[in-house]
Amino acid sequence: MPPSARRPFSWQRHGDHLVLTGAIDETARLAELVAEAVDGKLALDLGGITFINSIGVREWVRLQAGAAEAKIQLELRRVAEVLIHQLNIVPAARGASTVTSFFASYLCEYCDDQHPSLIDIESHRAELARMQPPPMRCPSCTKAMAFCDPAELYFSFLSGTSPLS
Ligand SMILES: [Zn+2]
Fold first, then answer.
1. Is 74 among the domain residues?
2. Can you give the CATH number for the domain in which 16 is found?
3. Among 18, 61, 133, 138, which is 20 to 30 Å from 99 by CA?
4. Domain membership flag for residue 41
5. Considering the entire predicted model, what is its pTM?
């Protein structure tokens, strides 16, 4: 884990959404974010989340439960890879929230470098429904990159199925 991964949790409002950054652990009071909903909606930008531990997952599930109880529509944008792994293995972590875009790692075999790439669900609905990674080009050399994770496991949060069941 890079030293920056345990950057303390913080959040800020940016227009219609909240931007969450840092580590989701025992210091992250996620349940209180429910109070930030406007007109029954709450959108979270999760691109800056660098780490989540088991206590953090519990906090995250409390946020999902709190939003469901208050009938708040939770939209998750730019979901970081560390969170996608949790959504895939902990069904309760998905709650009733809607993911609109998320990060996934692609490998450029020419540069021998991994690039986290943002996948917009609406624009790639057809590929994602077939569990196929949308094609991505290397930001350095523009050649086609390869998807790093087993796609059917990584995309399982989209279909609401668990790879473990
Ligand atoms: Zn490259």
1. yes
2. 3.30.750.24
3. 138
4. yes
5. 0.92
Q: How many domains, the chain? A: 1
Q: How far, in Å, from the CA of 137 to the mean position of ligand 1?
A: 8
What's the gap in Å between 135 CA and the centre of ligand 1? Answer: 14
Tell how far the Cα of 151 is from the centroid of ligand 1, in angstroms.
21
Q: Is residue 154 part of a domain?
A: no
Q: How many Å lie between the centroid of ligand 1 and the Cα of residue 73?
A: 39
In a domain, 125, yes or no: no
- Give residue 112 CA to ligand 1 midpoint distance, Å: 7
Cα 44 to middle of ligand 1, angstroms: 31
Q: Which residues pair with 101 in a beta bridge?
A: 120
Dig out the tokens for 155 from the structure: 């995309």
Q: Buried b / exposed e across 134-152, counting CB within 10 Å, b at 16+? A: bebebeeeeeebebbbebe
Residue range(s) defining the domain that contains residue 46: 3-99
CA–CA dist 85, 48 (Å, integer): 15
Summarised one tens digit per residue, pLDDT across range 110-157 is 999 999 999 999 999 999 999 999 999 999 999 999 999 999 999 999
